[in-house]
Write a structure and sequence with these properties.
Layout lengths: L3 E7 L6 H11 L4 E6 L6 H9 L5 E5 L6 H14 L4 E4 L11 H9 L4 E5 L6 E3 L3 H18 L11 E4 H4 L11 H14 L4 E5 L1 E3 L10 H18 L11 E2 L2
Parallel strand pairs: 1-2, 1-4, 2-3, 5-8, 6-9, 8-10
Antiparallel strand pairs: 4-7, 5-7
Helix pairs in contact: 5-8, 7-8
Length: about 250
């Protein structure tokens, strides 16, 4: 069985899915892929089933309704843990993350990193085709999270990641209820607070070429409120040492 499971959550990504999956197969052909579709009305789930019929390393999990990015990833984590994969990858289905970066990210995980983040906001990282307001929101959200959570992670909201499954087993995943950006913040913050080794690998993030962004005001508000509450509660405890954090240059 493959060591790596790539989790690909989808909702109305019929225009991007086949192209993204092809790029994944070119970059990490040895990995298994789990598509988690939330009953996309545009037929993404049916396309995923057709692709899986010709790809033994591809599995499709159909959920009955749109239930949030965080819950989709938690379902994928449970699938990976039950089958004893060594590494779990989070990647967007819209093509904004380049699967070619996965080889380097997986190498860092194999070298001992508990979490490898594909980071836009470290040296060597960048974004393409993003309007200035999106860049402002992302930079401001990351800066606010760093201050409130006393974090060393530059791109704590990033959705392109590699986890070691043995590290995920140390977390109480049943206690995670965040969605969207906030899910990514919570998982990284929990690991950092536990003294796990977090590494940021620079990537070039490219805005989707097709389909519509899932970002909306509710996701931003949830992240702002939760990070504020976590930050206030966390200041009652001493900050844990984080010698294991570093950013790849």
């Amino acid at each position: 069985m493959a060591e790596t499971l790539i989790i690909l959550p989808t909702y109305n990504e019929i225009e991007s899915l086949e192209r993204v999956l092809g790029r994944i197969r070119q970059s990490v052909p040895q990995a298994d892929v789990l598509i988690i579709d939330d009953s996309s009305p545009d037929g993404t789930g049916r396309l995923a089933d057709r692709l899986a019929a010709t790809d033994q390393g591809l599995t499709v999990l159909h959920r009955p309704a749109k239930d949030g990015l965080g819950r989709a990833y938690l379902a994928g984590f449970a699938y990976a843990l039950e089958r004893s994969y060594h590494y779990v990858v989070e990647i967007d289905a819209d093509g904004s993350h380049d699967p070619a970066d996965l080889s380097g990210m997986l190498s860092l995980a194999a070298a001992g990193a508990d979490l490898v983040i594909g980071s836009r906001w470290v040296r060597g990282g960048s974004v393409r085709n993003w309007p200035w307001i999106r860049q402002l929101v992302s930079r401001a959200g990351n800066a606010y999270s760093r201050v409130m959570l006393r974090s060393s992670i530059h791109d704590i909201t990033a959705g392109f990641r590699v986890y070691r499954t043995q590290t995920l087993r140390t977390l109480d995943l049943s206690a995670v209820s965040s969605q969207g950006y906030c899910f990514q913040v919570e998982l990284a913050w929990r690991l950092e607070r536990a003294g796990k080794r977090v590494v940021e690998h620079p990537i070039v993030f490219t805005e989707r070429a097709a389909g519509r962004s899932k970002m909306h005001l509710g996701i931003v508000v949830e992240a702002l409120l939760r990070v504020t509450l976590w930050g206030i509660a966390g200041r009652r405890r001493p900050k844990p040492a984080s010698p294991a954090f570093r950013a790849e240059k």
